[in-house]
Amino acid sequence: MQDAHSDVVIAGGGAVGLSLAVALKAGAPGLSVTLVDIAPSGSPPRDERASAISAAARKMFEALGVWGEVASAAQPILAMDITDSRGQDRVRPVLLSFEPGEGTLGHMVPNGLLHGALQRAAAAKGVTLIGSSEVRDFAAGTGRTTVTLGDGRTLTASLLVAADGGRSRLRGLAGIPVLSWAYRQAAIVTTAEHEKDHRGRAVEHFLPSGPFAILPLSGKRSSLVWTEPEKEAPRLLALPEAEFTRELERRFGYRLGAVRPVGKRQSFPLSLLLARSFIAPRFALCGDAAHVIHPVAGQGLNLGLKDAAALAEAVVDAHRLGLDIGLPSVLARYESWRRFDTVRMAFVTDAFNRLFSNDNPLLRLARGIGLGVVDRLTGLKGLFAAEAGGTVGPAPRLLRGERI
Ligand SMILES: Cc1cc2nc3c(=O)[nH]c(=O)nc-3n(C[C@H](O)[C@H](O)[C@H](O)COP(=O)(O)OP(=O)(O)OC[C@H]3O[C@@H](n4cnc5c(N)ncnc54)[C@H](O)[C@@H]3O)c2cc1C
Question: Ligand 1 centroid to 206 CA: how many Å?
């Protein structure tokens, strides 16, 4: 029996893999795209997180016709304060602030909602979705790659894309080495309700134990990304409600009145990982499979969406020219587009986390001066805002809101 052939097989149906599938079909409806994921098709992701989506990523979702489904639940981030303090400080000096009108800082979007909208868009555009299955192995041959699924089925493709997350099995199978280290920190993620309206203001408290981010959600609710040393996280997660609330209040501060946790408590070990190459013969890495960064700036998914936009553009352009989409020159265009931006963002988030996650008095003084200076330099602040908005560097068409 002949193997089923697709132009592109994508392993991994997270937000990045799905966005890539939708973008490919939007740009070249004639391309056949198959997406394989371990989870059953149509199932919502297991986590209750929300993600900060940059202005550029929003433009991409608008161009792909996905934004309409999530817009009503998306909370705009209108302003942001960054403070540097100890947990017990009642008053926390604001070292850097972005006020409304200084540039769009993005939107908070519930992950489950985004995932559902992307899955429906992929199905509507004719992507073949294979759920409850994994890509177990693959072999690149002349003109095509043979992909083996967990149940023994085989598919062939002109291009195989690994969007299978930070622990990418396919990256290992491709023999691509990585640069990586663990931060020995965990991010506790939960939702809090508060007495007062947040007015779209995000706050990042840099505490000695790590950054504590308060990100506005619709209503009087905020999503918390609470970084702690790895050893401390299990204790906090297991605390009874009243004690957990006290620990949360101590870090949250008193700006929004009484606060109480309402969502599930989840914890994520934090690490940095950079693939030394994004491509191999008829193979490309995309999203967390290519890079995992510290969530201090809420940029991991945004980076992955930029990968998806760049890879889709390189493939669609090649297809329009009648070229083989798995050619090394097509993949090299994608890699050179994304490598520098990824390393730069990994470096910036790593440096921020290292500089702030400690109680060294000299460093406290230095960072106070550093951020105070940034607050006065409108040009630099503009750059920070542009970074948050995802508009730094040469952007693929979709990220500029154009048709692919
Ligand atoms: C605490 C925390 C907060 C964050 N906040 C933000 C934020 O605010 N903004 C932001 O931009 N980023 C944020 N991030 C980063 C963001 O969550 C990730 O970058 C993003 O989820 C990566 O998406 P992905 O699709 O590449 O990978 P994943 O979401 O990991 O998806 C991988 C998919 O591949 C599937 N899979 C795995 N192996 C196989 C296989 N062999 N075959 C088939 N399928 C397979 C899995 O089932 C899964 O569906 C945060 C991260 C953390 C830890």
Answer: 25
Tell me, using a 6 A CB cutoff, whether residue 163 lines ligand 1. yes
- In CATH, what number is assigned to the domain containing residue 100? 3.30.9.10
Q: What is the pLDDT of residues 217-250, one digit of tens each?
A: 999 999 999 999 999 999 999 999 999 999 999 9
Q: Do 223 and 350 fall into the same domain?
A: no
CA of residue 115 to ligand 1 center, whole Å: 11
Tokens of 181: 């280290």
325 and 223 in a common domain: no
Distance 118 CA to ligand 1 centre (A): 14
pLDDT tens digit string along 157-207? 999 999 999 999 999 999 999 999 999 999 999 999 999 999 999 999 888
Percentage of the residues of the chain whose pLDDT score is greater than 70: 88
Pocket test for ligand 1, best of 107, 137, 214, 301 (most atoms within 8 A of CB): 301
Q: How far apart are CA 22 and CA 283, in angstroms?
A: 19
For residue 102, the enclosing domain spans 74-108+182-269
- 3-state helix, strand and coil shares in percent for the chain, rounded to the nearest 5: 40, 30, 35
Q: Are 217 and 183 in contact (CB under 8 A)?
A: no
